[in-house]
Amino acid sequence: MTAGETAASFFKYASISIAVVVGLYATLLGLLTTSTVQSHVVYLHAIQMTWFKDLNVPETFGFLKNQVTPFSIKTSDGERLYAWHILPAELYRRHEQPLVAEPVGFVSDITSRLAFQLLRDNPEARLIIHMHGAAGTVGSGYRVPNYRALSAGQPGKIHVLTFDYRGFGRSTGTPSESGLILDGLAVVEWAMNVAGIPPSRILIFGQSMGTAVSIAVSKQLALQSPPVVFAGTVLVAPFVDTARLASTYRVAGTIPILSPLARFPLLFNYLQCFIWDKWLSKDNVAQYIRANEANDEKYRLTIIHAEDDYDIPWHHTPILFWHAVNASVPAGISYNDLELRKLESKVDLGAAGSVMEWRTDNGVIREEILKTGLHDVIMGYPVITMAVMRSFAAVDPAFTC
């Protein structure tokens, strides 16, 4: 075979390979326009990540006996959400003997359990409603260390309530944007009406996909009459909206899905028409801030992101922060003007990152950018504990004593 024939053969097979790859990618794009496939890609709810452990035995995840109470919460449309009520370590220590004596496993009536009574009957108790990200369950990955970080500031008072959205883990149903918002509202209603915890003693915490649910729920409750505003809302590794996330997202931080198409605005904008669950967090956070400012409600919003987050790039957070700040200013403020203000007011923490706070007469909007922390590891960091304590202390300075 001559050199020319070899080159021709190479280009022939290379062309075939490229055509196959392009064909497969086009097929993937076609499948992504269907609601079923898109739901699985967005929520990853079929990926359990706890296949070899029983969620009804939380001790296998490193908890003390009966430190966690598994139970369920019913939504307004009839779904059952699997949930964990997690006792803080010091409170558990004080009541260890009667807690150990109780039966273990899933509880059909949580109000009969000591752990629930320690939450309901203590006027000093605080509750964090935890909304996790896509994929997995309440027991997956870095979520367990996250629960410990959340209660670490006051291990005798801070309870954690975490749950799996519909279609995740042991929860019934199929995930959707409207469905997950109903799930969040159902858990908040349980906390206020069943556990009897007032909003001033509740903090909403969301990570990754959970940030979209958290801010949507916080906004809806702030807009109702009378408004409901919590001690704080903490968002870790948030995203602006689904379309912007799709334009930057890479599986495992390396494999792009739609990001190559972002270079072709007309095509990418056309494909956005097929996004079913839009999760417009930028709009929701703006409406949340405007509602609180208009109602003279005290609020605290904290947004945290790590620069080395390869799942959701950290530059989503400055955009979300700007939408929040812009909503707090009657005349508005441009993104560039806010960046200039950051040059004057931002606190440089060196290797720990930076902090910018925007204060109004009613609230505090805080942006924390860490140098390291990735997408999930950050959830066990002290910065999470500090965000919780700032929120609760802002409502009641005596809480830190």
Largest sheet: number of strands, sense, barrel closure: 10 strands, mixed
CATH architecture of the largest domain: 3-Layer(aba) Sandwich
The assigned structural class equals alpha/beta
Task: Give the end-to-end Cα distance, rounded to a whole number of Å.
Answer: 85 Å
The average pLDDT value, as a whole number, equals 90
Instruction: State the order of secondary-structure elements, H for helix, E for strand.
Output: HHEEHHHEHEHEHEHEEHHEHHEEEH
Tell me the fraction of residues in β-strands, as a range: 15-25%
Strand order of the largest sheet: 1-2-4-3-5-6-9-12-11-10
Q: Indicate how many domains the architecture comprises.
A: 2
CATH class of the largest domain reads Alpha Beta
DSSP, total strands: 12
What would the principal axes of the Cα set say about the shape?
Answer: globular
Oligomer: single chain
CATH third-level topology of the largest domain: Rossmann fold
CATH superfamily of the largest domain: Alpha/Beta hydrolase fold, catalytic domain
Radius of gyration: 23 Å
Q: Stretches where pLDDT falls below 50 for ≥5 residues?
A: none
Number of helices: 14
Percent of residues in helices: 40-55%
